[in-house]
Design brief:
Blueprint (H helix, E strand, L loop, with lengths): L2 E9 L5 E4 L3 H4 L8 E4 L4 H10 L3 E5 L2 E17 L14 E13 L3 E3 L4
């Protein structure tokens, strides 16, 4: 069902994840791997904003650290949960499909540490 959806998008190379109704502190923790895959339908200005922000923060796992960006996003779309897996190597349990991004706001200097406590 198509609806308006809001949440946090963590943009990591081969690890784009979306967390509906969650803020950065919730999305950038150990729950990251349970997040839904997200590949937004961005207009030209939104795509340029994402390109400029691509390495604004750091993502830390037990395997090392990488550049990451995070955004507060509002879009029209739907959530798909039927299937074997979504995203890179089918590693995500579900996918949010954005038909139209209504707003996107970069979150400053995200620090995502997904190492277990």
């Amino acid at each position: 069902r198509t609806r308006t959806i809001e949440g946090t998008w963590i943009d990591l190379f081969e690890g784009s994840r979306f967390f509906e109704g969650q803020d950065l502190s919730e999305a950038c923790g150990t729950a990251f791997m349970r997040g839904a895959w997200f590949e937004p339908a961005l207009d030209q200005a939104q795509a340029e904003l994402v390109r400029r922000n691509r390495s604004s923060g750091v993502f830390i796992s037990k395997y090392g650290s990488w550049p990451v960006a995070a955004y507060s996003v509002k879009f029209v779309g739907h959530h798909e949960i039927i299937g074997l897996g979504f995203g890179h190597m089918s590693a995500s349990p579900s996918e949010f499909v954005a038909e139209h991004v209504l707003s996107i706001r970069p979150l400053p200097r995200p620090r995502c540490d997904i190492r277990p406590d």
